[in-house]
Amino acid sequence: DTGVSQDPRHKITKRGQNVTFRCDPISEHNRLYWYRQTLGQGPEFLTYFQNEAQLEKSRLLSDRFSAERPKGSFSTLEIQRTEQGDSAMYLCASSLVGRTNTEAFFGQGTRLTVV
Amino acid sequence: SQQGEEDPQALSIQEGENATMNCSYKTSINNLQWYRQNSGRGLVHLILIRSNEREKHSGRLRVTLDTSKKSSSLLITASRAADTASYFCATAYQGAQKLVFGQGTRLTINP
Predict the structure, then answer these.
(1) How would you write the pLDDT of chain B (111 residues) with one tens digit per residue?
(2) Residues of B in Cβ contact (< 8 Å) with A91
(3) I need a labelling partner for B64 at 20 to 30 A (CA). Which of A32, A54, B31, B90 fits?
């Protein structure tokens, strides 16, 4: 069990550019979440997948954001036409959802800076 | 919007003392989870307590849950400098599939 892996760890981009982040969940986990965290705040929910299906999206997720989880394994989060307000830590988490409550395990995050 | 609220927002104590953090939430939950986050890093899962449980222990951690008051507390006993971090509670509330986080408590352990 290598845990949840996120890539890259840091990304600096110019305003208006597109960026894509990758998340590899714990291998047997069927649920995958994306959160965003700004300085001094708790993580805010963006979206989640159950296997390959995207089942919920937050109102925070504007049209410039898109997430995919092809084949129910890794996931990508793309931000188009980045804005300075997109600067944040983007966190991915996975869990195994079944009959009982389970913990969600987080990756180390991708820190995005839009300049 | 965030459902949970942690109290206090910041806590500074001497090494060896106990640290208590509180979390309040607004709606019925399935479970409540506590996480630790070191500066600029990811979240580390500490403990999960189910809605039908009242207390849970893990090493130096003790978590209580009072569903009638919609509140939880995290107690860290015999604190160490390495416990310096932000601590978040996250609720899995009924009818929803995501965790909702509070704003966290910043804990500083002074040597």
Answers:
(1) 445 688 899 999 999 999 999 999 988 888 999 999 998 788 999 999 999 999 999 999 999 999 999 999 999 999 999 999 999 999 987 777 788 999 999 999 999
(2) 42-43
(3) A32
Closest CA to B9 of A104, A106, A115, A42: A42
Please report, to the nearest 10 degrees, the dihedral formed by the alpha carbons of residues A88, B6, A106, A87 taken in order: 0
Q: Which of B20, B2, B109 is nearest to B72 (CA)?
A: B20
- CB of B30 within 8 A of CB of B97? no
Tokens of A81: 């036409």
Which residues pair with residue B24 across a beta bridge?
B5, B71
Q: Please list the residues that pair with A77 across neighbouring strands.
A: A21, A67
State the Cα–Cα distance between residues B1 and A103, nearest whole angstrom.
22
Which of B31, B13, B15 has its CA nearest to residue B105? B13
Distance from the Cα of A81 to chain B's closest Cα (Å) equals 25
